[in-house]
């Protein structure tokens, strides 16, 4: 029997106990073994935002207080996408016991890895808040656009995660492939550099803007720092949502029923 991606996501959202509470319990249990606890989850954002951000600001001749929030926001939201997709590749295999027991709504496992990435993002909020408070470019009005922009990012993660999860259940190498692609994409995402360094009309700018993560990061960060969002970003993300969800629905309907056999 074929499964519906939209119906399964709706069912998962109506019953969040498994993928929210269980994920939070997993993280708390994991870090409880350490004396510093959740501080270890907080530390990478602190180091990247103020450590790496300060270093690359000096390296490129930018004002540190201007570049640090650029770096911090870019890193945090890039990590939200990459953690979700890299762990989605092993989501089904990692929950094989649940699937073999008859819990075949795969969106529960996809949302579990997305929830984990979101918790890490929430833990980075104090760091980003300090960086923005110190920034001369911070635009408070951008906070009004933060939730809609984040929903666009999560909507794209949802369809990409569904494809990666189903393919990853059949082909274990998909997880390694996705990880390699995301590592390569980091260099073409404006995190260590700024988008205005390579304008859209240039060859390098055109190559960078083929990268979906370029637009997923910019849609969230640009309003907060008073930077314009390119028209290409709106068009790119709209096409991604339409084409991506159509592809994910087809893949899920065709192959999700085979996942219990594959795992």
UniProtKB/TrEMBL annotation:
Membrane topology according to the record: Multi-pass membrane protein
Keyword Cell membrane: yes
Main location: membrane
Limits of the ABC-2 type transporter transmembrane domain: 22-223
Keyword terms of this UniProt record: Cell membrane, Membrane, Polysaccharide transport, Sugar transport, Transmembrane, Transmembrane helix, Transport
Residue spans crossing the bilayer: 36-57, 77-101, 113-134, 140-167, 174-193, 233-252
Cellular location(s): Cell membrane
One Pfam family this sequence matches: ABC2_membrane
Entries under InterPro entries matching the protein: ABC2_TM (IPR013525), ABC_2_transport (IPR000412)
Keyword tRNA processing: no
Similarity remark: Belongs to the ABC-2 integral membrane protein family.
Protein name, per record: ABC transporter permease
């Amino acid at each position: 029997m074929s499964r519906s991606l939209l119906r399964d996501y709706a069912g998962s959202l109506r019953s969040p106990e498994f993928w929210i509470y269980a994920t939070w319990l997993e993280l708390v249990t994991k870090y409880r073994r350490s004396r510093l606890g959740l501080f270890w989850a907080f530390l990478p954002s602190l180091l990247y935002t103020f450590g790496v951000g300060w270093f690359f600001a000096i390296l490129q001749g930018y004002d540190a207080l201007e570049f640090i929030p650029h770096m911090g926001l870019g890193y945090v939201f890039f990590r939200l996408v990459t953690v979700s997709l890299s762990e989605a590749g092993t989501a089904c295999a990692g929950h094989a016991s649940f699937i073999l027991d008859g819990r075949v709504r795969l969106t529960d496992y996809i949302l579990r890895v997305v929830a984990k990435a979101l918790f890490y993002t929430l833990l980075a909020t104090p760091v980003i808040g300090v960086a923005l408070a110190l920034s001369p470019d911070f635009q408070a009005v951008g906070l009004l656009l933060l939730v809609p922009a984040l929903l666009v990012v999560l909507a794209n993660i949802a369809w990409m995660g569904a494809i990666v999860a189903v393919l990853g259940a059949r082909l274990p190498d998909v997880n390694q492939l996705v990880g390699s692609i995301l590592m390569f994409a980091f260099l073409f995402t404006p995190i260590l550099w700024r988008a205005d360094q390579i304008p859209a009309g240039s060859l390098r700018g055109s190559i960078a803007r083929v990268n979906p993560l370029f637009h997923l990061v910019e849609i969230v960060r640009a309003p907060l720092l008073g930077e314009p969002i390119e028209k290409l970003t709106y068009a790119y993300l709209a096409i991604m949502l339409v084409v991506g969800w159509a592809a994910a629905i087809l893949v899920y309907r065709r192959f999700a029923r085979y996942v219990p056999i594959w795992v």
